[in-house]
Design brief:
Elements: E1 2-3, H1 14-22, E2 25-28, H2 30-35, E3 44-47, H3 53-65, E4 70-74, H4 84-94, H5 108-116, E5 117-118, E6 124-128, H6 136-148, E7 152-156, H7 166-175, E8 183-188, E9 196-201, E10 214-218, E11 224-226, E12 229-231, H8 236-240
Parallel strand pairs: 1-4, 2-3, 2-4, 5-12, 6-7
Antiparallel strand pairs: 7-10, 8-9, 8-10, 11-12
Helix pairs in contact: 3-4
The structure holds S-adenosyl-L-homocysteine.
S-adenosyl-L-homocysteine binds at residues 6-7, 74-77, 80-82, 107-108, 112, 156-158, 187, 189-192, 212-215.
Length: 242
């Protein structure tokens, strides 16, 4: 299980790169495979268009059992809303003896925070708005808990062509706890060719600009915007009266 980072090869860790280089077979989503294409030469590549997640994992385990070194790639980090958990679920259910290793990747939240400034300097909660595997009532409860406890909120899977109302609904909920000046950072396709960075506030934020390749970060009550960067203070200035 290898994380390929947010997109650019510069953000693929040397550890992840060398593991991919020593593999015989690489499986993954087409988008991620395209992004790492330059290092896939000479390997058997099995793209996801051919099968769904569970089937892909079964296939990976099957090939590994035949003695090959198999790499299942995920964008970002493989253990964050990705495939690592599913690999263990399936391996456990099959009582598989395949040796499984998880190799971290730079997650979207790292690269998006970098692009925005320093929004994650204090406690933050990461919430996925995808209700494909999680009921909306559960997501709503977590949004409310995080918003009411003044966490910075990192929103993954914010909006897709089919899931269009969830983000607006999250904003309406967050507004019950935060003022209209609260900073909102939107990063689309971080580190990729079509990257876009938008810094807004809860008052000016326009959910329709958000795509599935975006991460949205809502600041806490202390977050601020300075020189078009989004910052959440850790508290040094108050403590040392700077
Ligand atoms: N395993 C990935 C997350 C996969 S879930 C990770 O660790 O980052 C897919 C969601 O991740 C997208 O809907 C988006 O919210 C976020 N994401 C992935 N790559 C991104 C990128 N390059 N820029 C902004 N957001 C990204």
């Amino acid at each position: 299980m290898v994380g390929t980072g947010p997109g650019s090869l510069d953000y693929l860790t040397p550890a992840a790169r060398s593991i991919i280089e020593t593999c015989d077979v690489v499986l993954g989503y087409n988008t991620y495979l395209e992004l790492i294409e330059p290092i896939l030469q000479g390997k058997t590549v099995i793209s996801s268009a051919m099968m769904q997640e569970v089937e892909r994992v079964r296939k990976a385990l099957e090939i590994a059992e035949s003695g090959k070194k198999v790499c299942l790639v995920s964008g970002g980090d493989p253990g964050i809303y990705a495939m690592a958990g599913l690999v263990f679920d399936v391996a456990k259910s099959l009582n598989s003896s395949v040796q499984i290793e998880v190799v971290a990747g730079i997650a979207a939240l790292n690269s998006c925070a970098e692009r925005l400034g320093a929004p994650l300097m204090h406690d933050f909660a990461v919430i996925s708005l995808s209700d494909l595997l999680t009921p909306w009532e559960v997501i709503e409860k977590r949004l409310e808990a995080a918003a009411s406890a003044d966490f910075v909120m990192v929103i993954y899977n914010p909006r897709s062509k089919k899931r269009t109302w969830q983000l607006q609904s999250a904003v309406t909920l967050i507004r019950r706890f935060r003022t209209g000046e609260t900073p909102v950072g939107i990063v689309k396709s971080a580190t990729r060719k079509d990257e876009e960075i938008i810094i807004a506030t809860l008052d000016t934020f326009e959910p329709t600009v958000v795509t599935m390749q975006s991460t949205v970060i809502f600041g806490n009550s202390k977050s601020y915007i300075w020189n078009n960067r989004m910052v959440t203070p850790r508290g040094y200035l108050d403590k040392y009266h700077l």
